[in-house]
Every structure is written in C-alpha cells, then in structure tokens.
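Predict both folds.
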Amino acid sequence: MPAFPGIPLMALVAILYKVFTGNLSTLTLVVLLLITLISILIDYFSGLLGAKYAGANGKSILLGMAGLILFIAFFPPFGAIIGLFAGILAGELIFKKEYKQAIKTASAGVITSLFGMMLNLFLAFVFLTIFIINGISNI
C-alpha cells in the first residue's frame, strides 16, 4: 500500500545494514534497490495502467491519480483504492457520461491495483529472502 512503504522501508534497512556492518555485497544491494524501484512503480502505476487499458481517457487517469493521493491522506490504508476508483469513475462520468463504461473502467483500475499489491507482496518475500541469504551468509 502506498501509505505504508514496505519495500522502500526494507531498502532503507538494507542500506543501513550495509553501512554499519558491511555484511552485504554491493551487488546484492543493487539488486535489492532494483526490486525497490520496481515495487514503487507497481504501487503507483498498476491501477492507472489497468484503467487506461480498459479505455479511460487521460483526464480520468489524472483524476484517478489525484483521488489516490487525496484519499490515502484521509482514509489510510484503503484510501488509495477508494480514491483511485472514485477519481476514475468521476472522470469517466464527467468526460464520457457512460455509466456502464465508467464502472468498468474504474473497476479495472481497482482490480489491477489489487493485482499490483499482490505482486508487491511477492516482491517483498523475494527481497527478504535475498537479504537474509546474502546478509547472514556473510557474517
């Protein structure tokens, strides 16, 4: 969830571990930082790309992004999903005025956002496994 940056926080721990112990190779740290970058991109773009693929126009995508940011500030941890859906739905209703298509497009945004969260959970397990195997094996 964007409100709780799990993998970026894990990356910070890995960096601090490297700095203070030196027990993590530079290559491992680079791999972990790449996983972090991929995770951040998935967090912020999975729902928007899903909505775009379902036919959302650019203004609806911007409203979805605004809704994601606004709602996450006021309704954590589920605000991102609610805000994304509400923003895309509002945009589609304002700009296209087709209710069924608006629901379909907003739902696609939410579904791909949830898929992105599951993918990030998988990446977190990969990150943790790499960190433990490479960090502890160097002690």
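Second protein follows, with its predicted structure tokens after the sequence.
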Amino acid sequence: MSETNHGGQVDVKQLEALVARHSGQGVSIPRGTYSGRVVRVEPYVGTPGWRATRAVIEVTVGPHAGAEIAAVLDDRWQATRLARKAAGNGEQVAFDVFVRRYEDGRSFSAVSGETIRWLEKTPVGDTPWVPDRYPTAEEIATAAAIYPYGFACIGAKEARRIVMPWAEAHRSMADATAKFLGKSVFLSAFTFSDEFVDYVNDQQKPGSVAGYRGPAYSPLLCFDIDRRDAAGRPDPAAARTDVEKLLVVLTEIGFPDESITVYYSGLKGFHVDVASSLVGAMPSDNFPAIARQFCLLIAEEADIEIDLSLYSLLQPLRAPNSRHEVSGLFKVSMTVSGFRDLSLDEMRELATEPRGFVPPPVLREPVPGLAEIWAYAKWVTSSTAREPDRDSRTIGGDARIFGQTWEFLIGGAPEGERAVALFRAAANLADFESRDDLIRALLDRGVMRSGLALTEAAAHVDSALRRATEARRPD
C-alpha cells in the first residue's frame, strides 16, 4: 500500500494505519499521562522527504507498567532529541498517550510524540508517591475552611456567575429549600478562597470569574457519565450500565456504600459523588488536575468513559434538584441500593419533582488505600508537567502548533473531552501573532510529508501570501 495518495499529500487514514502499525504494536493503553524509559530509538522510513525517528518507550509506573508503546517522531522536534538522549542515559521521561478509533470500532494506542518531556526527579523507591503520613480529618477540615466560596449559574450553564458560599448553596438545593428551586441551577465544581473573591471584585470587569487561575478545593469528587446512541440520541440505559460498573469498583477499592451518592441528571446520564476527605485530598494549586487523574484512574479500572471537562477549574456542574432545561425533570439523588433497585422509568418518575435529602457527611477520616490512589494521582500530576495554558499574549513570535492541537484538527476528540480539546486547540492557534504565521504553520506538516524541499516550499507560500495581500489592497 502506498503511503501517499495520488496528489502527493498524506492520506489521513493511511497515516493513521502507519501510526497504528508502528506505534501501538497491538498494546491497548488508555488515554492519559504516563512515565517510562526510552528503550531504543531507530530510524523510521516515512513518506519521501520526511525524516523521522521511532522511539520505543516502556511504561515504568502504574497499572500498565511493563507495557511498551512507541512514538513516531519528526526529526525536527525537540522531543526527538530528548528521546535519543533518554535512550542513552536511562533517565525517565513523561509522555501522553492518545487512542484513535476507526469507524469499524477498532482502536489503537500511540504516544503523542511532541509531549515527550523529562520526568521531574522523585525519591528512589518502589512507591515514590506514598507520603510518610496521610492528613487527618481534622487537618482536612482546617484547610478546607479557607475555601468556602463557589459560584452559581441560575437559569442556564452560560448565565452570569454569582459568587456565594458553596456549602450553603449546595445544602439548600439538596434539601429543596433554595429560593431558586424549580430553575436550572449550576454550582461550581470546585471551591475557592478569599483570593477568588478579591479577583472577581478587583478586575477591570467586576463580577467575571474568567481568567482566574488560583488554588482550589472540593469536598466532593464527582464522576459525570453521559451516553448517546449511534444516532446521537440520549442513552440513559447505557449510562446506567456504566454507573453500575463504576459502583462495583468504588466499593471494591474502599468507598463505603453510604458515602456514595448517585444522581439521575434528568436527561441522558448520571452523576456519582464521593467525599474527597476519604481519599485524603487537601486544597492545592492543581487540585482539579489531581481530581481528574484520580477519577480517570478509577474510570479506567471500571472500563468506562467519564466527562473529563468537569475537571476544569471554572467548570459549572448541575446542582442537586436542578430542573433540566430540556426534559423538565429534576436532578434527583439515590443511594447505591436505591439506584440498583429502581428501573429507569421509576427514576424518571422520581425526577418529576424535586426531592429533598440529606447528603452523606463530607468530612470523614481518610481510608489508607484510597489515600494512596490520590497520592499516586498527585505524584503523576506534579511530576509530569504539561504545557501551560496558553493564550495570544504568552508566546509572541515563538508560536508552534502542538501535537494535541493536530490530533484535534485531524481526528477531533471523544465525548467527554471535546470541549476541553477544542478550547486548548483554539488557545494554541491564538498564539500566532499574524495570520501569515498561522498559515505557514498549518502547511508545515503537509510540506514535510509531500517531500518538497523546505526552501522551495517557503518560496511558494511566500508568493501566495504576497498575492493575497495585493488582492486585498483597495484600487
């Protein structure tokens, strides 16, 4: 099979097949961030004129330790030089894995090559993420008391953010006494300190939470499970099956049934809440990222997908007893046994009106096994530093298109990650100071894979841009 089509450009599906053959090696590793060592690097023969390297990486930490997965790297990337050096000195690297799915349902895992970076040094040991001790419930309560604030959106998720005491708002929605009961109500997924309130009040546009990047916390960790069928219609039956799988794992790893709250969201899915104190979670600058990694680890163990956009710092989440704007039903709570006993029709009947309830206590002594999983998620998050959030003010003339952006431009993103992937891709493209720079960057990979000499390609692009500029000038 030819690796290019008749026009000389790489066919996307053929390229994916090449990556599948030379990257995944049949290994199925879930999407996520990993650490490992580069076993070897070797030349890779791609399309004419495209100089590339294949790096084989062995996962060294976590449930997939020992698995080997490879990356096909462009020789011009800094990551390629880093991989060669790591193969020679044995130092650990961090990297991101993506999963590509074909229309026939087949899938393969591959390393996102541009994300390969050095792993920050950690203490030597079999379990370097395990601390000397875990925090007590009293220590968690003291730290959490400094993070009492959240925001509410009344009427729609896009409504103005209203800063208020989070626990009070959550409690009044749960016991069905809130003054805005009967409306669509969303509360922030995380809570904040006085720093958040000062930011909202002091910026040029008072009342806006946009752009806040401070520390956070949450007394609850939430799993958001929505499903749609092949035609794009809500599929709560499929979501319910996945919730059952999640509940099995949650109880197996140490969450007591009475600490778990299940909600029917009112349309296509469910939310599952657990107390963050059970895992020893403390407020931090990267709390949402740790929560994301923790919940993703558990979801992977249950072999289900969850909505990862929930773990964005300023993401709103539908509140208990919120009325769904499409179905008119309410987000109602259930115990684990109640969830298992009720049919979907009975859940819908239950959701025809708000149901007051008393949530389980959020302050509990940490369970050592759960705290170790949280500690591992924290270690992975802190030791595999990602590209920082970017906007058009951060880079200037040093902009480039990252691998994650290319993945979105070529193949989109799976349900649950689409909003975050789109935002990051748009922010990356906004790095470019001029449209001409962006056009050159978008054409760059096609130039490499078509075999054109770089000087010749640059001349063609410059000529096209010059003619376009002249055509826009007024007569």
